[in-house]
Amino acid sequence: MYRNYVLRLIGAVIALLVLCATVVIVLDPAFQYHLPFAGIEATYTNERYQNAGLIKHQDYDSICIGSSVTSNFRASWFDERFGGKTLKVSYPGGTFSDFDTALETAYATHDIKRVYWSLDPRLLADDPQNPHELPTYLYDFNPFNDIQYLLNKDILLESCSQTILATLSGTHTDLDEAFVWETEDTKYGLDVAIASYERPKDIGFQYDRHVFNTPLRANLAIVDKWVDSHPETTFYLYFPPYSTLYFDSIKRQGQIDAMMFLLYDTANRYKDKPNVKFYSFIDQNAITTNYDNYTDMVHYRSEVNRYIVDYMADNPPMDDNDVSQLASHLRSLMENYDFDSLYPPSVQDKYK
Predict the structure, then answer these.
(1) Nearest to 155 by CA among 247, 6, 48
(2) Quick check: 24 and 150 in contact, CB under 8 A?
(3) Which has the closest alpha carbon to 99: 233, 254, 224?
(4) Which of 350, 68, 334 lies closest to 194, judged by CA?
(5) Angle at 319 between CA 315 and CA 321, to 5 degrees
(6) What is the pLDDT of residues 308-328, one digit of tens each?
(7) How is residue 157 annotated by DSSP?
(8) The sheet that has 114-118: what strands, in order across it?
(9) What pTM value is reported for the model?
């Protein structure tokens, strides 16, 4: 009798596990096996999990990739200006190791004509590895490790539930709007940007220009890997338009020379690559000094993302003269811009 009870219990557990896995396979909120079936609404809630399935199964020949500053892009903007079919894969809090993994999956499943890649200076100056690792079992093609997805409590109880609720309520989210963080309630302006900026103390000296050299080389090696091994792809690489608050922090932390070297070395490295078109928006004062564009020191409104697309479509990439002007312009900004004037006197006194 006891044996029969144990066997029935084991059978019930197996049946329950099979049922759970079946629900995940059918609803597939991370798109690991298929895009949503007709009548099922997709919900876009976690880029790090869902980008893997989108990369595998969406129809595209171009990819827009980068950190959270790319989230407000709409893929359709690239299609309008450059042609083709674009997929946006943004990674808030991401690093170059995340971009590397995503491109591994993209090139394994698609022929890529164009890559639009945001080279964030603060990521170039940081360790390429991410302490918050991607769920790599979703990005690979090994079916045996999918158990981490099929029997994942959070996937079943949260993600599948969100899919069911969206389907029952008829809530539709277009892929073009997926993972866009800007809403009607997002606030912009100098007061908003400064409120989220912890101004560092001025250390009173400047570090050597090579202080970022180790992480910079590691990150550029990842970019080189894709640029050099895929001459058939055109890479649109660019510095995103961080606000001048970012350069205030650089100056006060003694990193002017190091950041100038990072920006110059990166731009100079790619300006002559035959399959690269390199652009810089970090030195476009009309954007970076207008704080109505910013919700913090680096994140900007959708209109700026749209401007980036149109600018790259309408203007030639950087040449030798542009690269030289980039460095001199930013050095002049950091040495001569009156950052203190952005703050009320009480705040200025705090940071003296």
Answers:
(1) 48
(2) yes
(3) 224
(4) 350
(5) 115
(6) 999 999 999 999 999 989 988
(7) I
(8) 86-90, 62-66, 114-118, 234-239, 276-280
(9) 0.94
Which residue in 324, 119, 128, 77 sits closest to 238, CA to CA? Answer: 119
Give the mean model confidence (pLDDT) for residues 54-61: 98
State residue 131's pLDDT score: 72
Instruction: For residue 14, give every residue at least 6 positions away whose Cβ sits within 8 Å of its Cβ, in sequence order, or none.
Output: none
Average pLDDT across the chain, whole number: 92
Which alpha helices (DSSP H) does 110-255 contain, by range?
Answer: 121-124, 136-139, 147-150, 153-154, 160-169, 190-195, 213-229, 244-252
Q: Count the Cβ atoms, other than its own, within 10 Å of residue 18.
A: 11
Q: What are the tens digits of pLDDT across the range 61-117? A: 999 999 999 999 999 999 999 999 999 999 999 999 999 999 999 999 999 999 999
Confidence band for 275, pLDDT divided at 50, 70 and 90: very high
- Contacts for 162 with CB less than 8 Å, ≥ 6 apart: 29, 43, 45
Amino acid residing at 122: R
Tokens of 272: 């002559």
Contacts of 116 (CB under 8 A, 6+ apart): 62, 63, 64, 65, 78, 86, 236, 238, 312
Q: Are 219 and 128 in contact (CB under 8 A)?
A: yes
pLDDT at site 33: 96
